[in-house]
From TrEMBL:
GO cellular component annotations of the record: plasma membrane
Binding-site residues, ATP: D508, K509, T510, E618, F659, K682, R717, T797, G798, D799, R901, K907, N930, D931
Sequence ranges assigned to domain P-type ATPase N-terminal in this UniProt record: 120-186
Bilayer topology term: Multi-pass membrane protein
Name of the molecule in the record: Phospholipid-transporting ATPase
Domain annotation P-type ATPase A: ranges: 218-282
Keywords: ATP-binding, Magnesium, Membrane, Metal-binding, Nucleotide-binding, Translocase, Transmembrane, Transmembrane helix
Pfam families from the UniProt entry: Cation_ATPase, E1-E2_ATPase, PhoLip_ATPase_C, PhoLip_ATPase_N
InterPro entries the record matches: ATPase_P-typ_cyto_dom_N, ATPase_P-typ_P_site, ATPase_P-typ_TM_dom_sf, ATPase_P-typ_transduc_dom_A_sf, ATPase_P-type_domA, HAD-like_sf, HAD_sf, P-type_ATPase_IV
Catalytic activity reported: ATP + H2O + phospholipidSide 1 = ADP + phosphate + phospholipidSide 2
Low complexity: compositionally biased ranges: 54-75
Membrane-crossing segments per the record: 185-203, 378-402, 439-460, 989-1014, 1020-1037, 1066-1090, 1096-1116, 1128-1157, 1163-1182
Annotated source species: Rhodamnia argentea
Originating gene: LOC115751492
């Protein structure tokens, strides 16, 4: 699809359209002879209006005042506040306080003084940078440089306490008194892990360096020496004038001076900044439009705020030719934006490099840590205490032995206290430091020998396993969305296993549960409901065609029309009903910030009109107006042209008040061909009925209210439309007030809102519109699966209560069997009473349900399902107060919680409320900027690639295209990831503990001297090479159950919630098994070779090989899904160990030369291996069989059913699956 030129014609009269009525001079509206009346926009960012032109020239001039199309989101949410409040530094954010809005406004209203301002001298970079050397435009996203890489990377890696532990061990081994192993061998494991991590970090940072180099060396047109010349981006300075061509990316934040459009309009795409693909309009000041740098010197001063992260705000003023002009967000284009549908644009650099808003926002989501890894730290502490205990035992026994043999120490051959190497009568002690120091050194040497009790390879293994798991999640075609051409993405690799333990899901509604593709369904006009299923699709499916310049234009989107309403729309204003319909659809076509663009079709004479805007609601209403014959075909900065039933009419846009979250409405002031001026307003019903004159047409107002309730009850999004005619005095009063407000340097936003509120009153109601936001495919089934998995789903939405409840029913979130507890309170006291009543009701219903179950005799019957519905006003009094505890107490007893009319920070507050009071894991999912704070607050954040940009995706841990993909993500991949990672961690503890205990038993038979039979290299390679690879591959590839089974029986997800695969009980059982296996590995060869001539090195090789064989066969016994990779890893590991032992013993300069060849040729060697395997593993095998037979878990039952294909048995046992145990509160 190619997008052509915008339907924006700068001249006041449309070419080749003589039928378009011209606009009168409006001399009768203004009593003064000269004025400053101009078409204006009253959004917060708009600019002061000059006083140089008369009313007549103003209306007929081609240089019209700009009308910003910075989006009005009709959903009632405001991402601007969220961004600002999220960046308040250390100031505590109150999720439930109304004071945050005013606090934000007070910050934005501060007057810019010289101390807090940046002074930018236009076209004079030397003077600009004279007092303060501003940063250059070179950017750097890389973390390291060639010099800082080694120290900084090591510093970051040693944030892991385990690495510090191994470093201390390696340092101790360098001391002569404690040198148990060779100095190189002791450093090798830590060096290997550090090297692998450093290589990974270096590769990632090299890619960043390469991207930075490409970005910094791009070229831009910069005005130098009287002409525009090419200059590298990194050399651009603040104060320079740059020229941007169409489709170019902006290299910096620049204040717009002029554009190729005579009215100063520029269209930009901000997809690189905030992810939104719709075009936005930016404007140059009228005073700078005609200035050409090549022909005349441009000079002036811009006083702007210091660099900040707020991409939606900009406060500044500009002094040009003796005039002081206000600047706002509509006058600045940010770095990363692309210029579209505009030939060129000139601007002055205000912020460069790392001070641009894009770079200041270049921070990832908050770092999150896996709950499994957090729990793992407790076991590591226990192992450390275990290690300390072993070392203490050895040092104590060594002290006892030294005391008992103190008289024999001089002559004991293997100890020899005295040094007999010199022929002197008085021999000195040979490396003997006294009884106390000998004990102390024994303790330290024991720490060195038993160091692998803490598995150093565990951390690197976990990272590699997570990378492998993420690869398979990304490659899962079942989570690929064809509609958005988006696949699943892992943006955080350290919390994969948390996906298998989620208990709470917090979901946005619009765009997450629904498609956020608005479709006009019906309308209530002047008290008459045009809907109720009577609409039918038009035959052509694209709306009424419009002819422009011998080309047929059709609206891009088809809209269903109501036959009777269509006839009234075509009848014109002849009848009262027709007049009301005319005004209603005229309001829908004009009261918006949409820009019509032409889209090519296969027929060169037929074009499609594509309405570009940031609000799907506005687009739906504009397409609906076009379907009924009111087609917006042209918008300039000062007027619009609407084709009304084949007749093109032009209206001057005299003012436009943007939507904001305080007023919750927007308005447009139009100049009509009959010299009248009217204001059209649309907005939420909660704000519109307060400004409608209820003394007029009470019956119409009452009927409209009933229709609104009916629309909301079936899940439709509603807006109320009103209008009134302005007298000349009212218009003049409004215009003067607007000028004063827009020229103010302090409190401009509040003043502009006040001006808008003054004109948006005493309205006459026209009607209400109803838009449908359809559910995404598979949402009801997904919610039902999550509920069956004992996952509580909370929906947090900004929509009104009736709409949210209707969506709740259609999505199966709410059911008719549920008892609803609704809390709509307007004060803290009433909110407290409602919560207390709700808790009492829930307790009573739970008691009654339990009594009924006991009477009937049913086992394990669920209690009565409760649904809590609470609005944002009530949450204002609950969050950040003592009522939080009561809300959580009530909500924890409910199966469903539905929060309506909530603000973005309230969403985050609700997530925080749950996190603070339970150890259960939370997941938040959303698609818009208003969901970012919620996503970052939850343990796991999921972003939906939808219609509201990519802010949620960029702040999330995982991203996907549809809500329904949450089911395979949690129930399948989450389950697999948790089971694999939990097993891998426990297995790492087990395999290292086995080897440590073998070494410990040997110490007991060597007079506690800490000599070791195992070579130093085998001891170090054991956990790094010999046994690490099998567990990594099993952690990535093993599957305890198939996808089909996990999706068919969501109850199986409860294994992760109950933490069945990783618990303290399992840890201690594994440690007991470890002790037994180490006994079998050590003592069987010891007794077999007790009186043989095999030396200790040969026994050490046997113990090493036996340990590797046993732990790998232990792993093989637990593997569920065998693949050729798993076979290669396990059996290859055993083979690799044998080869390594042979190589080590074949080196003559190492201890134990040729030992493996001596012991390997004996029959006892192979017999011992067989007996060790049987003795070590048979008890575990028997215990496992008995446990699985007499006390099988749900997963084991499902696995047996899979194995034998007996799913009927599984379905019969489904109702007997374990109830989900409620985890204890923190």
């Amino acid at each position: 699809m190619s997008t052509g030129r915008p339907l924006l014609i700068p001249s006041p009269r449309t070419p080749n359209t003589p039928q378009t009525p011209s606009i009168p001079t409006y001399a009768d509206l203004a009593k003064r002879s000269s004025g400053d009346l101009k078409p204006v926009s009253t959004m917060e960012s708009n600019i002061a209006i000059d006083n140089t032109s008369s009313i007549e020239s103003n209306y007929n001039s081609s240089s019209r005042r700009s009308i910003s199309s910075h989006q009005s989101r009709m959903s009632g949410t405001n991402s601007v506040k969220e961004v600002i409040l999220a960046d308040l530094g250390s100031k505590r954010v109150r999720h439930g306080s109304r004071g945050t809005d005013s606090e934000f406004m007070s910050m934005s209203q501060k007057e810019i003084n010289d101390d807090d301002a940046r002074l930018v001298y236009i076209n004079d970079p030397d003077r600009t940078n004279e007092k303060h050397k501003f940063t250059g435009n070179s950017i750097r996203t890389s973390k390291y440089s060639f010099i800082t890489f080694l120290p900084r990377n090591l510093f970051e890696q040693f944030h892991r306490v385990a690495y510090i532990y191994f470093l201390v061990i390696a340092i101790l081994n360098q001391l002569p008194q404690l040198a148990v192993f060779g100095r190189g061998a002791s450093i090798m494991p830590l060096a290997f892990v550090l090297l692998v991590t450093a290589i990974k970090d270096a590769c990632e940072d090299w890619r960043r360096h390469r991207a930075d180099r490409i970005e910094n060396n791009r070229l831009a047109w910069v005005f130098m020496n009287g002409q525009f010349q090419r200059k590298k981006w990194k050399d651009i300075r603040v104060g320079e004038i740059i020229k941007i061509q169409a489709n170019d990316t902006l290299p910096c934040d620049m204040v717009l001076l002029s554009t190729s459009d005579p009215t100063g309009v520029a269209y930009v795409q901000t997809i690189n900044l905030d992810g939104e693909s719709n075009l936005k309009t930016r404007y140059a000041k009228q005073e700078t439009l005609s200035k050409v740098p090549e022909k005349e010197k441009i000079s002036g001063l811009i006083k702007c705020e210091k660099p900040n992260r707020n991409i939606y705000g900009f406060q500044a003023n500009m002094e040009v030719d003796g005039k002081r002009l206000s600047l706002g967000p509509s006058n600045i284009i940010l770095r990363g934006c692309e210029l579209k549908n505009t030939a060129w644009a000139l601007g002055v650099v205000a912020y460069a490099g790392r001070e641009t808003k894009a770079m200041l926002n270049n921070a990832g989501a908050p770092s999150k840590r896996s709950s499994l890894e957090t729990r793992m730290n407790l076991e590591i502490i226990i192992l450390s205490l275990f290690l300390f205990a072993l070392c203490t035992v050895v040092s104590f026994l060594a002290a006892v032995w030294l005391k008992r043999h103190k008289d024999e120490l001089n002559i004991i051959p293997f100890y020899r206290k005295k040094d007999y190497s010199e022929p002197t009568p008085d021999h000195d002690d040979y490396k003997y430091y006294g009884w106390g120091l000998e004990i102390f050194f024994t303790f330290l040497m024991a720490v060195i020998v038993f160091q692998i009790m803490i598995p150093i390879s565990l951390y690197i293994s976990m990272e590699l396993v997570r990378v492998g798991q993420s690869y398979f999640m990304i490659q899962d075609t079942n989570m690929y969305d064809e509609a958005t051409n988006s696949s699943f993405q892992c943006r955080a690799l350290n919390i994969n296993e948390d996906l298998g333990q989620i208990k709470y899901v917090f979901s946005d509604k619009t765009g997450t549960l629904t498609e956020n593709k608005m479709v006009f369904q019906c309308a209530s006009i002047w008290g008459v409901d045009y809907g109720g299923g009577k609409a039918s699709s038009q035959n052509d499916g694209v709306g009424n065609p419009v002819e422009v310049d011998r080309k047929i234009l059709r609206p891009k989107m088809a809209v269903k029309v109501h036959p009777q309403l269509l006839e009234l729309a075509k009848s014109g204003k002849d009848s009262p009903e027709g007049k009301h319909v005319h005004d209603f659809f005229l309001a829908l076509a004009s009261c918006n910030t949409l820009v019509p663009f032409l889209v090519d079709t296969s027929d060169p004479f037929v074009k499609l009109i594509d309405y570009q805007g940031e609000s799907p609601d506005e687009q739906a209403l504009a397409y609906a107006a076009a379907a009924y014959g009111f087609t917006l075909i042209e918008r300039t900065s000062g007027h619009i042209v609407i084709d009304i039933q084949g007749e093109r009419q032009r209206f001057d846009v005299l003012g436009l008040h943007e939507f904001d979250s305080d007023r919750k409405r927007m308005s447009v002031i139009l100049g009509f061909p009959d010299k009248t001026v009217k204001v059209f307003v649309k907005g939420a019903d909660s704000s519109m009925f307060s400004v409608i004159d209820r003394s007029l047409e009470k019956n119409v107002i009452h009927a409209t209210e009933q229709h609104l309730h009916a629309y909301s009850s079936v899940g439709l999004r509603t807006l109320v439309v009103g209008m009134r005619e302005l007298s000349s005095s009212e218009f003049e009063q409004w215009h003067s007030a607007f000028e004063a407000a827009s020229a103010a340097l302090m409190g401009r936003a509040a003043l502009l809102r006040k001006v808008a509120s003054n004109v948006e009153n005493h309205l006459c109601i026209l009607g209400a519109s109803a838009i449908e936001d359809k559910l995404q495919q598979g949402v009801p089934e997904a919610i039902e699966s999550l509920r069956m998995a004992a996952i509580k789903v909370w929906v947090l939405t900004g929509d009104k209560q009736e709409t949210a409840m209707s969506i709740g029913y259609s999505s199966k979130l709410l059911t008719s069997q549920m008892t609803q507890i609704i809390i709509n309170s307007s004060s803290k006291q009433s909110c407290k009473k409602s919560l207390e009543d709700g808790i009492l009701m829930s307790s009573r219903l739970t008691t009654q349900s339990s009594f009924t179950n006991n009477t009937v005799g049913s086992s394990g019957a669920a209690v009565t399902s409760l649904a809590l519905i609470i609005d944002g006003t009530s949450l204002v009094y609950v969050l950040d107060s003592e009522l939080e505890e009561q809300l959580f107490k009530l909500a924890s007893k409910c199966a469903v919680v539905l929060c309506c009319r909530v603000a973005p920070l309230q969403k985050a507050g609700i997530v925080a409320l749950v996190k603070k009071r339970t150890s259960d894991l939370t997941l938040a999912i959303g698609d818009g900027a208003n969901d970012v704070s919620m996503i970052q607050m939850a343990d796991v954040g999921v972003g939906i690639t939808g219609q509201e940009g990519r802010q949620a995706v960029m702040a999330s841990d995982f991203s996907m295209g549809q809500f329904r993909f949450l089911v395979p993500l949690l129930l399948v991949h989450g389950h697999w990831n948790y089971q694999r990672m939990a097993y891998m961690i426990l297995y790492n503890f087990y395999r290292n503990a086995v080897f440590v205990f073998v070494l410990f038993w040997y110490v007991l038979f060597t007079c506690f001297t800490l000599t070791t039979a195992v070579t130093e290299w085998s001891s170090m390679l054991y956990s790094v090479i010999y046994t690490s690879f099998p567990t990594i591959f099993v952690g990535v590839l093993d599957k305890d159950l198939s996808r089909r089974t996990l999706l068919k029986f969501p109850q199986l997800y409860g294994a992760g919630q109950r933490q069945e695969s990783y618990s303290s009980k399992l840890f201690w059982l594994i440690m007991m098994d470890t002790i037994w296996q180490s006994v079998a590995i050590f003592f069987i060869p010891l007794f077999a070779y007790w009186r043989s001539t095999i030396d200790i090195s040969g026994l050490g090789d046997l113990w090493t090989i036996a340990s590797v064989v046993v732990v790998n066969l232990h792993l093989a016994m637990d593997v569920i899904r065998w693949t050729w990779i798993t076979h290669a890893a396990i059996w290859g590991s055993i083979l690799a160990t044998g080869i390594c032992v042979i190589i080590i013993d074949a080196l003559p300069f190492l201890f134990g030369y040729w030992a493996i060849f001596h012991i390997g040729k004996t029959a006892e060697f192979w017999l011992c291996l067989l007996i060790i395997v049987v003795a070590a593993l048979v008890p575990r095998f028997v215990a496992k069989i008995i446990y699985q037979h007499f006390s099988p878990c749900d997963i084991r039952v499902a696995r047996e059913a899979e194995k034998f294909g007996n799913f009927r048995e599984l379905e019969r046992m489904e109702m007997e699956m374990n109830l989900m145990a409620e985890p204890q509160r923190r």
